[in-house]
Task: structure prediction
Amino acid sequence: GAVVSQHPSWVICKSGTSVKIECRSLDFQATTMFWYRQFPKQSLMLMATSNEGSKATYEQGVEKDKFLINHASLTLSTLTVTSAHPEDSSFYICSARVGWRDYNEQFFGPGTRLTVL
Amino acid sequence: GQNIDQPTEMTATEGAIVQINCTYQTSGFNGLFWYQQHAGEAPTFLSYNVLDGLEEKGRFSSFLSRSKGYSYLLLKELQMKDSASYLCAVMDSNYQLIWGAGTKLIIKP
Result:
């Protein structure tokens, strides 16, 4: 099956610093990648949708200047949490989908646990 | 607004059968997904239904009724490793996934 990797798996950083999370589709080309955030005991919350070569579409309430998304190639998308604060501590998960408007299963990465001190 | 409802938590016994229900109200419908998520891990795909009826895959089955906005996930011969959260998600008219809050399934020996 399709594999999506994320790096790093977990990261601890100081408040005010920036953290970059990479999401890669290892054996397929992903036209669309999604970034989710999940707080403990809550469901996945979609943060943004990124399509290769274009600007990401952010969900309401998600600050695009704080959560920078770059989908530079068909196999790589990055999420940068800028000036991180303790409330940004969460489980960040990316997923990748092949295809555009047709159904295609989303393949999830293993997630990145971010802790901001 | 868009809404996905599923029970918060369910408990079942090892070897038994459990049915997890999901009701939805979304702007458009392009299929319903069930995912399994173990604590601290990302979701893994279980099933996809776009037509009414039952889809069976080993110990897991998923049912859909579009007219009722209803689906269920049926787990048979429960094993301890089935203890996890089960997420119901609907793909809306914009091909975006709308997620339920998940049902935490606790399996007891």
